[in-house]
Design a protein that fits this description.
Structural class: mainly beta
Strand order of the largest sheet: 1-2-3-6-5-4
Distance between the termini: 42 Å
Mean pLDDT: 84
Number of helices: 3
Order of helices and strands: HEEEHEEEEEEEEEEEEH
Largest sheet: 6 strands, antiparallel, barrel
Number of domains: 1
CATH topology: Thrombin, subunit H
Strand content: over 45%
């Protein structure tokens, strides 16, 4: 059973140009919002980089059945890893539940895992979570290790997410532990083009110039340490 410790730290978010899932972590005495950078246009990201030392940035979180603006501080982003990190301001800290451990330690190939998010065009109950909609939970299997362009190891999960799950957390339970751990961030669901055929007048199948994109059944997940490393680098730059 996925507990409130996880459920109440996952949010439906959007930028000026995109929408996805984000989740809250508590790391080195601060609260951060983790999500994917591809829901933001490059111009938004560059603007945030230029302004980050002096100003707050507005994102929107779905709360009480509408999109509400929230001021957060931009930490950094990585377009290769598809990762972006914000820090909550003091007045915008969210529900005060103890966040889970951030670690992949104990995650084994073939193990059951869960991933959470908000599929597009599907609504969720909010009266159980102080006006915040509860995320959808799906189950998968940790299938393999993969590699990103910069040779970062990524986790490959067998499962079928919906559009909108990008930026959500991957969670698991270490053997002999009761609490969930956050192992990573959902970054991509590979889809492959498949040709569309039609029948001709002789009832024979013939190809057309059209394609559709089929869900591969696998999910690419960025390990959570990439987010904590980004936070540490920013702190060392600021205070070092």
């Amino acid at each position: 059973m996925v507990t409130s410790q996880i459920l109440q730290n996952v949010y439906s978010i959007r930028s000026q140009t995109g929408r996805g899932t984000g989740f809250r972590i508590f790391f080195e005495e601060e609260e951060y919002l983790i999500t994917v950078s591809h829901i933001f246009e490059r111009a938004e990201l560059l603007k945030a980089c230029n302004m980050k030392k002096s100003k707050l940035h507005l994102i929107e979180i779905y709360h009480k059945r509408c999109w509400q603006k929230m001021a957060v501080r931009f930490i950094n982003y990585d377009p290769v890893d598809d990762l972006i990190v914000f820090r909550f301001s003091e007045k915008n800290k969210l529900i005060n539940y103890k966040p889970p451990i951030l670690s992949t330690e104990g995650l084994a190939i073939g193990q059951d895992i869960y991933f959470l998010g908000f599929p597009f065009l599907v609504k969720s109950l909010d009266h159980l979570n102080f006006g915040f909609p509860l995320p959808y939970v799906k189950k998968g299997i940790f299938s393999a290790f993969g590699e990103i362009k910069d040779k970062t190891t990524k986790l490959i999960i067998e499962g079928y997410p919906n559009r909108g799950f990008s930026g959500g957390p991957l969670i698991f339970k270490k053997q002999f532990e009761d609490d969930f751990r956050i192992a990573g961030i959902i970054i991509e669901t590979p889809r492959f083009p498949e040709p569309i055929f039609e029948q001709n007048e002789k009832n024979k199948k013939v190809s057309t110039p059209y394609y559709y994109y089929e869900n591969s059944g696998f999910i690419e997940v960025l390990p959570i340490f990439k987010a904590t490393e980004m936070i540490r680098r920013e702190k060392s730059t600021k205070y070092g």
